[in-house]
């Protein structure tokens, strides 16, 4: 991919600067790709974040740039994940995320925690600064879920995996994906599986999906279908995410979970 398009990503929040740079350091575009973002602002209110196109050496040593047609690229941006938790001052859940999808497949993911300055990034077949943990519990997994429907998943999970199954209610899809990984932060909870049972926007999950894919993990619908990051901006099939586990077996163990088409 050649230069130009990253300058088109205008951010309304300086917390986006780091995530923008990580994405643009891994790939730049001939023309502006399709950009989907949760935040909509008037052009007059936008703040332009500049970048001099210099790539830090630690990232340059890890990434393997690739050329793809610009028209195959879709960028998904979530400037403030865990909005509800942010209003409740539960800042540990808040992340800023950017994802690059190529032909609908998540390829580059960046998850930034603006209140601790921790950033996880990964590129499929192109490097990362984060890794999976050394072990996971498949028999009685710790399952991380949204705070709003923890009880519903808890009932199903304990029927499936036993009464010792631990359910972790948490905010923010980015935070939940980081819970599956080896993240060196004291206030980052650890889980073995991430389950979501309702409609969710793709900008909430694309970055986490890309990071997991890059590390050999999986994020699918509850029935095991891959999530396409083209077309509509929502995923109606729920999701289950895991890494270094038998993902197919997890799906087969779970009964059908009721899903709604909208929040």
Report on the architecture of this protein.
It is globular, with a radius of gyration of 18 Å. The protein starts with 15 loop residues before the first helix and ends in a 10-residue tail after the last helix. The protein has a 6-stranded mixed sheet, with helices on both faces. A 5-stranded mixed sheet has the order 8-7-9-13-11. By secondary structure, the protein is of the alpha+beta class. It has helices at 16-26, 57-60, 83-87, 150-161, 173-178, 202-214, 247-253; strands at residues 34-37, 73-81, 95-102, 105-113, 118-123, 127-128, 142-146, 166-170, 193-196, 200-201, 218-220, 234-235, 239-242. It is built from 7 helices and 13 strands.
Quaternary structure: single chain
SSE string, helix = H, strand = E?
Answer: HEHEHEEEEEHEHEEHEEEH
Radius of gyration, rounded? 18 Å
Instruction: Please bin the fraction of helical residues.
Output: 10-25%
């Amino acid at each position: 991919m050649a230069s130009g398009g990253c300058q088109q990503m205008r951010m309304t929040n300086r917390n986006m600067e780091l995530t923008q740079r990580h994405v643009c350091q891994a790939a730049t575009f001939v023309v502006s790709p399709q950009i989907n973002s949760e935040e909509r602002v008037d052009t007059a209110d936008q703040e332009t974040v500049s970048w001099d196109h210099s790539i830090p050496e630690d990232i340059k040593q890890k990434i393997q740039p690739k050329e793809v047609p610009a028209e195959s690229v879709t960028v998904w941006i979530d400037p403030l994940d865990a909005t509800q938790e942010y209003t409740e001052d539960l800042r540990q859940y808040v992340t800023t995320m950017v994802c690059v999808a190529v032909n609908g497949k998540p390829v580059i993911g960046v998850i930034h925690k603006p209140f601790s300055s921790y950033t996880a990034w990964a590129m499929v077949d192109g490097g990362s600064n984060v890794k999976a943990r050394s072990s996971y519990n498949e028999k009685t997994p710790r399952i991380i879920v949204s705070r709003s429907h923890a009880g519903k998943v808890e009932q199903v999970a304990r029927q499936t995996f036993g009464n010792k199954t631990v359910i972790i209610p948490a905010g923010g899809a980015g935070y939940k994906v980081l819970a599956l990984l080896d993240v060196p932060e004291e206030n980052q909870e650890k889980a073995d599986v991430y389950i979501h049972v309702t409609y969710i926007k793709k900008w909430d999950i694309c970055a986490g999906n890309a990071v997991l894919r890059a590390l050999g993990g999986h994020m699918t619908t509850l029935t095991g279908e891959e999530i396409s990051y083209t077309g509509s901006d929502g995923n109606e099939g729920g999701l289950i995410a895991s890494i270094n586990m038998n993902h197919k077996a997890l799906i087969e163990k779970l009964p059908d979970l009721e899903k709604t088409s909208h929040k």
